[in-house]
Amino acid sequence: MPPTLLFLPGDGIGPEIMAQLRRIIEWLGQHRGLTFDMVEDLIGGASIDVHGVPISDGTLAKAQAADAVMLGAVGGPKWDKVAYDNRPEAGLLKIRKELQLFANLRPAMVLDALVDASSLKPELVRGLDIMIVRELTGGVYFGEPRGIEDLGNGQRRGVNTQVYTTAEIQRVARIAFEFARVRGNRVCSVEKANVMESGKLWREDVTALHAVEYADVALSHMYADNCAMQLCRNPKQFDVIVTDNLFGDILSDEASMLTGSLGMLPSASLGPEKPTGKRAALYEPIHGSAPDIAGRGIANPIAAILSFAMALRYTFDQPDEAARIERAIEAVLNQGIRTADIMAEGCRQVSTSGMGDAVLAAL
Ligand code: IPM
Ligand code: MG
């Protein structure tokens, strides 16, 4: 039986970019004998419109059953007035939580062809290859108590809770150490141990795990504010960064911009091992739904396609096919073919489907 893929295109540019990814997957079936059983469903605003909730129980069940979930993007101004805990983003948070996708891998790589797209000087980013491992199912995103309470005197009080347990810290740190071993063998663990108890615990638990199981990996620690600064000052000092949910959200956006285009970067979210021996997995571009350009056929499908390359690597044990797709994308960029977001002088601008055509031609 072919492996199963659940497609959740979502909102905004999600459906446009996922349509191009579909073409790439079909190509693999036709030319490489690699077929997938693809099912499509709704998430985010698209699901609110049909089911009244940003992800339905039926969709969650399909996600649990699939070998991998391929997600586009969620959210948009159309759903701005939806109740807070029912907004499109809540669908994304729910699928992360339900599938226990605790480790979010966000690579930030600079391809030679795009070195000038970065806002940093080329020498600072040429050859950059960082992997941010962001904790994804804990911390302030999910901590209790939370809410907004009325203090009765015209004042209100907003509360969120940053909370981590040793088990949560060590399982994500373990993923970071494992990845470091097959990369540059360095992990930088990031928190605010100077002001937060949860950060102090984070540092102690990462240090303890390292001593017992990963002493061969070089471990350093950094405060999150310093890390934000170092990413701009000298990003190539990093190999793998492991950090909590909120710091990871912020630092990964920053790291993505070092590469010049949000439209290029994929991500993988991994959960516990299933009975099949595979981890629960969801792959998605790190860019959002970009409602301002949705429906105009100009979005960059490369992050979605590279997300699938990550799926080939981490879920489907097809590193050669993953590399084939990555090489095709590099070839397209080297030919000077660009979507609007990465357009540069002397290059040829193409549409979303034009980029799909170019990647297929390179394949
Ligand atoms: C991300 C996004 C999400 C997050 C939003 C859309 C809920 O910013 O995946 O980084 O904050 O995690
Ligand atoms: Mg984010």
Can you give a write-up of this model?
This protein folds into two domains: 1-114 and 258-363, Isopropylmalate Dehydrogenase (3-Layer(aba) Sandwich), CATH 3.40.718.10; 129-256, 3-Layer(aba) Sandwich (Isopropylmalate Dehydrogenase), CATH 3.40.718. Helix content is 40%, strand content 20%. The chain has twelve helices and 14 strands. The chain has helices spanning 14-32, 45-51, 57-65, 88-98, 122-125, 166-181, 197-213, 224-233, 245-258, 302-314, 319-334, 352-362; strands spanning 4-10, 37-40, 68-73, 103-109, 129-135, 147-150, 156-159, 186-191, 218-223, 240-243, 266-273, 279-285, 337-338, 348-349. Helix 6 crosses helix 7 (197-213) and helix 11 crosses helix 12 (352-362). The chain binds 3-isopropylmalic acid and magnesium ion. The site of 3-isopropylmalic acid (IPM) has 3 residues, from helix 4.
How do the helices and strands line up, and which of them pair or pack?
Blueprint: E1 4-10, H1 14-32, E2 37-40, H2 45-51, H3 57-65, E3 68-73, H4 88-98, E4 103-109, H5 122-125, E5 129-135, E6 147-150, E7 156-159, H6 166-181, E8 186-191, H7 197-213, E9 218-223, H8 224-233, E10 240-243, H9 245-258, E11 266-273, E12 279-285, H10 302-314, H11 319-334, E13 337-338, E14 348-349, H12 352-362
Parallel strand pairs: 1-2, 1-3, 3-12, 5-10, 8-9, 8-10, 13-14
Antiparallel strand pairs: 4-5, 4-11, 6-7, 11-12
Pick out its properties:
single chain; 363 residues; alpha/beta; Isopropylmalate Dehydrogenase; 2 domains; 10-stranded mixed sheet; two-stranded antiparallel sheet; 12 helices; 14 strands; globular; binds 3-isopropylmalic acid; binds magnesium ion
